[in-house]
């Protein structure tokens, strides 16, 4: 049987959300829960996951449900880029586009490890995607110089950026 997503009523009945810490704790002691003890654990993706049979969900989405009574219309963006920081002040309802604009580090398959940087012969090129178009930002002697140019452009061109 597949796990169900929490409903507002089930969430409020089982758990208490602490908006200043981002933690969820058990409301009452049951066979599987101890009142006041944090629930959930780290997921392989870096998010905090809560699984209480038959319910499951990521803490950032559950925080949104707990505080507003409904799931977000889009994605929940962690403003500071830390997937495990589920404080209410760090969460915002965002489109996928805005959520992607708030990336702070390169994907794991990025061999250079820097956003917006790619090799160009013996030099380094900086590129950014903005307004649906890829923009060339220049060619630089070091990857760090190219990355700095990318970050400057990101702050100007990406409305969702909080770097």
Key phrases:
23% helix; 163 residues; 30% strand; 3-stranded antiparallel beta sheet; alpha+beta
Describe the structure.
With 163 residues, the protein is of the alpha+beta class. It is 23% helix and 30% strand. Strands 1-6-5-4 form a 4-stranded mixed β-sheet. Strands 9-10-11 form a 3-stranded antiparallel β-sheet, with helices on one face. A two-stranded antiparallel sheet has the order 2-3. It is elongated, with a radius of gyration of 20 Å. 23% of the residues are buried.
The helix fraction, in percent, is 10-25%
Total E-strand runs = 11
Averaging pLDDT over every residue, what do you get? 90
List the uncertain runs: none
Alpha-beta content class: alpha+beta
Condensed summary:
The chain is of the alpha+beta class. The protein has helices spanning 8-14, 59-68, 96-101, 143-157, and strands spanning 4-5, 15-18, 23-26, 41-42, 48-52, 55-58, 75-78, 91-94, 117-120, 123-130, 133-140.
What is the secondary structure topology, with strand pairs?
Layout: E1 4-5, H1 8-14, E2 15-18, E3 23-26, E4 41-42, E5 48-52, E6 55-58, H2 59-68, E7 75-78, E8 91-94, H3 96-101, E9 117-120, E10 123-130, E11 133-140, H4 143-157
